[in-house]
Amino acid sequence: MFSYYLRLALASFRRNPGLTALMIFAIALGIAVCMVTLTSYRAAAHNPAGERGAVLFAPSVDSWDPENSYDKDNKSLAPDLLTYRDAKALYASDIPDRKLITYRTGDIYTRPDKGMDPHYIPTRMTSRDFFGMFDVPFLYGGPWDGKADEGPEPVIVLSKEENKKAFGGENSVGKTLNWKGREFRIVGVLDAWEPMPKFFDVSNGAFHEMEGAYVPFAWGPILELGSHGNTNCWKTETINNFQDFLNSECIWFAAWVELRTSEKQRAYKAYMDNYVLDQKKHGRFPRPLNNYLYDVDGWLKRNKVVEDDNKAMLTLAFAFLAVCLVNTVGLLLAKFLNAAPIAGVRRALGASRRDIFWQHLTESGVVALAGGVVGGILGVLGIWALRAWYGRFVDEAARVLPFDGKNFLIVIAIAVTAGLLAGLYPAWRIGRAAPASYLKVQ
Amino acid sequence: MEIRPILSALMRNRAGAILVALQIAITLAIVVNAVYVTQQRLVHIGRPSGMDDQNIFSFWVNTYEKDYDYLGMVNADMALLRQMPGVIDATPMSQMPLSGSGSSTQFYTQPDKKGEKSPANYYLTDDHAVQSLGVKLSAGKTFNASDVEYKPTQEQSWAPVAIISTGLAKALFKDEPALGKTFYDDIGNPIRVVGVIEHMQGSWVGWDKVDRVMLTPRLNPGGSTMYAIRTRPGEIDRVMADVEVALRKRDPNRVIATPIKKMSDMKLQSYAGDSLMAVTLSTVTGLVLVFSALGIFGLATFNVNTRTRQIGTRRAVGARKRDIVRYFMTENWLITSIGVLVGCCLALGAGFWLSTQYQLPRLDLYYLIGGVLGLWVVGQLAAWQPSRKAAKVSPAMATRTV
Prior knowledge:
The structure holds two protein chains of two kinds.
Chain A: H1 2-15, H2 17-45, E1 56-60, H3 84-92, E2 98-110, E3 119-126, H4 129-133, E4 138-141, H5 146-150, E5 155-158, H6 160-167, E6 176-179, E7 182-190, E8 213-216, H7 219-223, H8 242-247, E9 254-258, H9 262-281, E10 292-295, H10 296-302, H11 308-338, H12 340-348, H13 353-391, H14 397-400, H15 405-432, H16 435-441
Parallel strand pairs in A: 3-8, 5-7
Antiparallel strand pairs in A: 1-9, 1-10, 2-3, 2-6, 2-9, 4-7, 5-8, 6-7
Chain B: H1 3-12, H2 14-46, E1 56-62, H3 70-82, E2 87-93, E3 104-110, E4 114-125, H4 129-133, E5 137-140, E6 161-165, H5 166-173, E7 182-184, E8 190-197, E9 213-217, E10 224-231, H6 236-250, E11 255-256, E12 261-262, H7 263-270, H8 272-306, H9 308-316, H10 321-357, H11 365-391
Parallel strand pairs in B: 4-9, 6-8
Antiparallel strand pairs in B: 1-10, 1-11, 1-12, 2-10, 3-4, 5-8, 6-9, 7-8
Helix pairs in contact in B: 1-10, 2-8, 2-10, 2-11, 8-11, 10-11
């Protein structure tokens, strides 16, 4: 029966090609706008850590100014970064299964044999567990071992792109790069890795570029490497050298811990609270106790990675789709009523009301499917155009608007659902029309 | 007016009229809110930066060799840059305004964190900054060459003189003239105002205090600095290419970080979110208006086609063409009005919801009035052609069967 309805639908389209095209176009435009806004929304709402995101936690402790909250818009929040002392203390706990501290820096690297143009490489100072906790894929070699963190040993892991720039993409493990007047030995080269949003460092931009090199954290204080990202301070302190800066209340570090059981999560939270209470005795942490332990999802929400603009645009896109659908309902109604005599003949020949209803609903579904496909294609073109436009001056363009096949399927599903909803009333209406009146006029 | 017969004819084919009214209602809600938000974003984007932002470019220069003569490098580079053809002036900068990356700190009108206070976006630069950024001084003068200092250490201090923007001057000294006054950092270092910039934006365009800026005559420490170069109008692309080559040739043993960026591109990047919002909203607004007009047009055409006999009869018993046009125009006006009425509630509701949910400002009522008038006009325009067509129906139609 369904294939017969499909044939009837095609015959109906041939009767009114203009009107049919108009309906498909109406749905397609609504869907295209939805596709573009949905793409940017889903890119921001994505949790790149997947299921592991539930056991990875970012601690946040309120070390801020007693007179002003850290976030003026949401006074209950604690800072999104840590001081050096707090980061070290939170890292010192034995409770986590794995743990890391990190910040972003960078400088000019050279190759001892001068085989590379000296250039700036954004560098992430971190610890060994970074690679395991975040499932970082390696092309050559692997992470440095645990004792390289402590020494620290002059070891370095390069990104795939950076290895291409420095060594033409060959296996560079064992070779060296000069940085800050020291020779760093390459122990690993990453495969392509770009988790977006960049959840482990959202304070410097959720769609910010990835670092090109990874170096043991302990080199930071030794080489006096300042932050090449956000640094926020509130307290009046005399800062005459790098050590003063490390001991200050300025925040620029992040910590992540892996806590696989809820007992460990509770224990770690208690550890944080005890640490802060102890620090209060030493005159630090002037604000009331206000600590958080966020999993990846909670962390992305706390940092408002999905911006208000994303939500507002998505809402408007769906309101626009609603207008397109109301329009389609009107067009379908006009089209069906126009062809009422044909339905009358079918009724007279024995088709039930239900048959007529399903026949017309099938027709609506086919229109919607066509609208969805055309809309999806228009949407991809729209994303492509936006990326081309923004790519000229925004590095993040491609990361904010990724091509994602899933979005295409989602909008087609939306289109078909919406099309069937739009077809309900017109199909019911035509099924209800008495056949006799149409037969008489003929 | 013949409202009653129009109403009773409408009631006989409710579905179509309700659909169009509904469409108009949602359209009004979308258009009013979208235009309002777009307008605000455009005002935000259109604010003047105070600088010659279309003719400035900048880039990082990093040194990496031990015991490299950083100070000598900056002096030699500046001497070279300032005499290049097409260059108006050049200056070293710690960071760039409008770039999204900058530094700010708190200043006070009295030592010991007393008196008025204000945060300021500060830039370490030299005596060519005013000319190189293309800002206008409303009082005082630019730095002397002898004011410019270099301190390689980390200790917190400031050059004893500064040029500040009017925004910062107003925040610290209210309506008193700021020139010659002294203000302080949080540990009491004094800074004297030697110049006031008429208007200048700092690094973060989303910051409500973006117009509070301080220029301080000191070179960026740490062996790295930005160079900002202002060119004659229309010559920026050529000069950008020349500068890169010339600097590399003068001394290859440091890094000229590419890509060299235009300030105009930094500005576009800083406002990218706002312009994306403006583009999306105005596209949707345009489309939704077209769709509503199509809907009205479609319904009117449908009504005219199904009522040819009725029209013919009216013409046969004496109605003039004018009356027929007026009938259909009124019918459409009624449908539009119902849609608009419902739409007002929807628009206000949506505006309120947006303002609470997404911290957007509350809808301005003038936009609603504008939207209502606009949709009435669109409705009447869309109904015009079908109404004219109706008027052309000949009175003889009354006597035909189909």
